[in-house]
Amino acid sequence: MSTFSPSAPPGDVRARAPGTVRGVHGLLFFTPFLLVFLVAIAAPLLYAVYLSFFQDRLVGGVTFVGLDNYRRALTDGLFHAGLLRVALFLAVQVPVMLGVALLAALAIDSGRLRFPGVFRIGFFIPYAVPSVVAALMWGYLYGRRFGLVGDIGGWLGTTLPDPLGRSWMLASIGNVVTWEYMGYNMLILYAALRAIPGELYEACQMDGAGEIRKAWSIKIPALRKALLLATVFSIIGSFQLFNEPNVLQSLAPSVVTTSYTPNMYAYNLAFNGQQFNYSAALAVVLGAITAIIAFTTQGSANRSGRSR
Amino acid sequence: MSATRTRAPGRRDSGRRALGRSGNGRRRGDRRGSAALTTAMTLMLVYTMLPLVWLLLSSTKDSSSLFGGFGLWFGDGFHLFANIHDVLTYDGGIYLRWFANTLLYALAGAGGAAVIAALGGYALSKYDFRGRRLLSALVLGAITIPGTALAVPTYLLFARIGIVNTPWAVLIPALASPFGLYLMRVYADEAIPDSLLEAARIDGAGELRTFLTISLRLLAPGFVTVLLFALVATWNNYFLPLIVLSDPQWFPLTVGLAQWNGLASGIAGSGAMTTGFYPMVITGSVLAVVPLVVAFLLLQRFWRSGLAAGSVKQ
């Protein structure tokens, strides 16, 4: 790459951000990302939209059907049941996980714990465990064959409810997901807490505020952005739930059905039902719902932040 | 490792240190409060660690003590090495092949993703070029597109162009990390002073050379953060490889272990060897978890400061 002349080209009077330089170099640096973005994100997305307008029929082969696949999705009971299930999951699991993560971050940041480093890394380690391994491990713990749930029930002299049974399965999956990502979220929140300027605490101290007051009036407001980020990622994760239920399916096939979550449904339609076009339509609908909810969360949080 | 050692750009915590928050001079009620806090956090630590302890203990058992004995203690005899031997030699050493595949996907995918994100983030942070605002918006939008939503469409597209069931089908999607790019951009804003770049330009250094010799060094903590999180994402990836790969020779560990679990639970319809698979799934899981945990422990200093920058600014 040739050397760059620091003076702007003659005649270029457009204002530029301080410190940035015009020219092609920026675009060159950005090009690799643009390429993988086009191949790995944009192209599959557009192709899915394209496919969703067709159907592979017994008579006539692949035909253009317009919005038929989307109409079918609107009335598909299995798809709706899956959506409701992940919505319920989202409503319960995400607040619990983020609440626990927030408490842990505040506790570690409060300076009242001995060996805070041990807690920090100990809470975070599950994040490094593949979700497949986490689901297998918890699945075995849940199971009657050699699980701990049976052992604990034995101690207590009762039979505990089966975590892999119909009524507890969603909660059991929620526990696996909470276990995996609590520490990750804790770390994001903790990192934001560490960045609060010391002067704020100083002022608070002079006012004679205690730790809880300090947490409530300084720390939690300062965490708004980090919490928002964590919430948006958790929402996306819930709607896309696949790995954990898919792994647990082998332990409880009658409970975790092939349409247990929308992603499992799309997967099974495509690979066990050969309904690629309808599956593509479901992927598009699911992606759109996820993006809309993520955007709305961000938007409403930003609004409430401004009005404060 | 103490938190004071890490330095994120823009962190100003000297004031709070000076106040002695973790030091002396506490009121009486505080001690009771901190005992309760320590108890609660210790319980949580038990929760996060217990399953892993169970997994480690279970990897030392053969199937009979796995089914018979108490989960949180050793069984009869120490079978860890026998189990490892079984895992590594089963089916002509297929586990080692999966391990090598995972290493390839994780290192090439995550390494590539981190380099691409660093270049792109640096470009958005330090250069003004045509279409910059549009591309920034594109990156932010792409963050909200979940990778898993793209898995089925990716399969359909890659099947069309004929690269399913090859490593490319896993590697190419791994290279695109919009969140990594966003993180690198925020990090570049904070860590690289514009005056430094201007000085380099006045000295006549080319843009690429400036990037390689000056900027990349300043970006190191952010780069390691992005690298580690991309490493986790590819190492733990399951949905996409499950879909795009059908030949076990190309499986990563996650897909292979799930397949073994299927065999153990007997759903795959193989009547021959079923429950004997459980020790292998468990020991194989332990072996799959260890590298990432070690990587995170060793690189703590880097990723913690990198994460700090990304989570604060937006």
From TrEMBL, chain B:
Highest taxon, organism lineage: Bacteria
**Where is this protein localized, as stated in its record?**
Cell membrane
Q: Where in the numbering of this chain does the ABC transmembrane type-1 domain appear?
A: 99-299
Which keywords describe this protein according to UniProt?
Answer: Cell membrane, Membrane, Transmembrane, Transmembrane helix, Transport
Topology relative to the lipid bilayer, per the entry, is: Multi-pass membrane protein
Q: Which CDD domains match?
A: TM_PBP2
Q: Which residues cross the membrane?
A: 35-57, 103-122, 134-156, 168-188, 218-238, 277-299
User: What ranges does the record give for the region Disordered, renumbered to this chain?
Assistant: 1-31
Q: Which Gene3D superfamilies match?
A: MetI-like
The reply to whether Transmembrane helix figures as a keyword in the UniProt entry is yes
Q: Does the keyword Chaperone apply?
A: no
Q: Which family does it belong to?
A: Belongs to the binding-protein-dependent transport system permease family.
Q: What is this protein called?
A: Carbohydrate ABC transporter permease
Per the UniProt record, the source organism is Sphaerisporangium corydalis
